[in-house]
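Hi there,

I know you've been waiting on this one. I reran it after we fixed the sequence typo, so this is the corrected version. Both the input and the resulting structure follow.
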Amino acid sequence: MNIHVGIMGATGYAGLELTRILSGHPSVTIAKLGSTSYAGKKVMELYPQLSSLHDRVYEETDSEKWAASCDVIFTCLPHEASVEAVAAFEPYGKPVIDFSGAYRYDDPDVYARSYQPPHAHPDLLRRAVYGLTELYRDQVKTADIIANPGCFTTCSILALTPVIASGIVDPDTIIIDAKTGVSGAGRKPSQALHFPETHDNCKAYKVAAHRHTSEIEQELSKTAGKPLGISFTPHLLPVNRGILETIHCTLPKAVSHADVMAAYRKYYGDEPFIKLYPEGSLPELKHVVGSNELHIGFVVDARLNRLLIFSALDNMIKGAAGQAVQNMNVRFGLPETTGLLSPAWYL
């Protein structure tokens, strides 16, 4: 199989990482590289490291021409642009994998509260499939619009789903303490992301107001079978990449480490990209950065009757581009791990 792909927003961090992964994918030909800001420039002018594509030129997106040349389109754009970009490809019947939050919500009203203004294409929003393959693999196989989840949401939802589904934790007591690398904010410069502001620093931001909270609540509420309110607080770390979360939950009854591990193995025993840690060992950023893996460890605090869950991933890969390739592989019937088996860099 040879899948011809188009990448809108190919010069941003997520689009760059997607281009890098797909340039080595054995079943992919990159047919189109889109950029409004850098249209007409060669890849080598911006990213010399993409040596296999050095003579290729970034171009404006023409949906009709792109649909004729591509089997699948990736939209690596801000949510405002993605709302219309995804809709523009809908008449051509080509699957679109969107990186933004534009199509991740089941309810248009929840989308409007989190992103504003109201969604311009609520009919398409309702048709979109949430692209967390570990939970929605069967739906992804036939989806025309795949809403690729982001880094915080992936790290949180996959870490919590098994213990909520099994009744091990009280889902009304969940507190997520999340820490992220600077690349999660994208390539656009700002004072808050300036080197002197981030280096040797760590700070909380968007406390009790982060828009991804509603997305986490949406997915975990489905598992719990009732509406949930989640306390989610992100922090900015002075590192390029990676997410590390510490999740606090109350235990309704006493459980052992083996009980919790059994719940995770029931859900993820055969999942190629989820790694479960044995008792006494916990994930670190160095264990995941450079890979498409999510690592999960946990500690049962019997003294306080709490479960502490530790989850980690690379925000640019499992939290963005790698996950999108995982979705593409499933959608086109390829082995899910194709092009995604590189281990973490560690150094």
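Quick highlight: Residues 64 and 91 are 9 Å apart (CA to CA).

Best,
R. S.
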